[in-house]
Prior knowledge:
Blueprint: H1 26-29, H2 38-47, H3 51-61, H4 65-71, H5 76-85, H6 90-109, H7 114-122, H8 133-136, H9 140-154
Amino acid sequence: MGKSIAQPRVGPGHRSRRGARARVIPYAASLGVRVSRPQDLVQQVEAGLSYTAFEKLLRLLRISGQELAKLLDIPARTLTRRKEAGRFSAKESERLLRLSKLLEASAELFEEDREGAVAWLRSPNRALGGETPLGMSKTEIGAREVENLIGRLEHGVFS
C-alpha cells in the first residue's frame, strides 16, 4: 500500500486550530444557515431549510407571507403544512436560497443599504421589461437575468 499524500488545509472555509473564524456563505447566513462550504449548504438544502428561514426572509424583504409564498410558488395550504412540519422540501429550499442570494447581491450593489436594495427589488425595472427583480426571480432563468443586471450595474454598464 502506498502512502497517501496529506492535503494542505487552507482556503476560505478552513478553520485554524487557533480558532480563526471560517468564512460563512453570506446568502445562506441571511436565512439563518451558517455554513462555510458549498457542500454543507447543498446538504442542508437537500434536507430542507427550516420554516424560520422563510420567516427571516419575510422580515428582510418586508413582504407578506402570501407574497413570499407566491414568489416561491408555494400554495397557501402547502405553506401551512410546511409551517406545521417546520421544514421545506429541497426544491422549495432552493427557491428560498435563490431569493436570499438576490437580496444579498442587491444589498451589495447598494453598499449594504438593505432598504434601498429591497426597494430596488420591488420596483419595476426597464432593463427587465418593466418587471420587478423580485417578480423575475420566480424562475431560475429570471433570477439569472436579475443577477446579470446587478453585475452590469456594479460595473457601470447601464441597460
